[in-house]
Specification:
GO terms for molecular function: protein heterodimerization activity. About 55% of the residues lie in helices and about 5% in strands. The chain is mostly helical. The protein has a single domain (about 25-110, about 130-185, about 200-245), classed as Histone, subunit A (Orthogonal Bundle). The strands form two sheets. The chain has a two-stranded parallel ribbon with strand order 1-4. A two-stranded parallel sheet has the order 2-3. The chain is globular, with a radius of gyration of 19 Å. It starts with a helix and ends with a helix.
Length: about 250
């Protein structure tokens, strides 16, 4: 392998598959607030981390069967093995992969709610916009050395769309409320596992209050929203990589 080829192989996983323009479009779907460039980069980085972790988990399940092409069963296996990957939950009602696993929904009178009604209206939102993530998802799949069948790509699109939509809503809430309010941290561990260290006090303090423009979502608002959307090792990696992406952009 040539030096140039080797360098590309090392750097491909670090390329951001979700463009800031896409991130800002998702934020515009849920809030009229301005999104700073640093916030867009942070949100793109967090979404990349989440999708990469899901793809890697599915890839391990596929490798056990000698495959490099991911199928929906690999996605279910990845989530089953690591509860930290259960993100973008609202997508599950829209996906054939998860149908039957989310349970039936009944109204106040005990009548079964049809699936089409559970999906809600057809107004623009995370479902309508899920296809916007396909190029980024395929790029991320390639960077991890795997491919996926079309239905699996659709699930990854949907999860990314719903996750980022939720991240946008929570970031906007952080701005409105002046910091992280009404939110605590819960860590899930087994009896054999060591309890991971808590967040540094400076991080907790930074996320509990905020200062600045009340009409602009900044990088720290996205980081605060990340603590609300994720937990465990995935959350820590997402926060670390989002900060790194901001530093790299500043240095560039």
């Amino acid at each position: 392998m040539s030096t140039a080829t080797s360098r590309r192989a090392r750097t491909v996983p670090d390329l951001p598959p979700f463009k800031p323009s896409l991130v800002k479009a998702v934020f515009r779907d849920v809030t009229p607030m301005h999104v700073s460039p640093a916030a867009a980069r942070a949100a793109a980085s967090v979404t990349r981390t989440v999708l990469r972790e899901i793809i890697d988990g599915a890839g391990r399940a596929a490798a056990e069967e000698g495959r490099k092409k991911l199928i929906p069963a690999d996605l279910l296996s990845a989530i089953d093995r690591n509860v930290e990957l259960e993100v973008g939950e609202k997508w599950y009602d829209h996906s054939p992969t998860f149908r039957g696993l989310t349970g039936d929904l009944y109204d106040a009178e005990g009548v079964l709610v049809p699936l089409r009604e559970r999906r809600g209206s057809r107004r623009p939102g995370a479902v309508a916009g899920a296809h916007r993530f396909e190029a980024g998802v395929r790029k991320l799949l390639r960077s991890r050395g795997v491919t996926a069948v079309p239905v699996m790509v659709r699930d990854l699109d949907g999860i990314a769309s719903f996750f980022l939509t939720g991240l946008a809503r929570n970031a906007a809430m952080v701005v409105r409320e002046g910091g992280v309010k009404r939110f605590g941290s819960v860590t899930l561990v087994t009896s054999e596992e060591a309890v991971p260290p808590p967040f540094p006090k400076d991080l907790v303090g930074a996320l509990s209050t905020r200062s600045g423009d009340a009409r602009t979502i900044g990088r720290d608002d996205v980081l605060a929203a990340t603590t609300m959307q994720l937990f465990g090792d995935v959350r820590q990696r997402a926060l670390t990589e989002a900060r790194g992406a901001a530093r790299d952009a500043s240095a560039g």
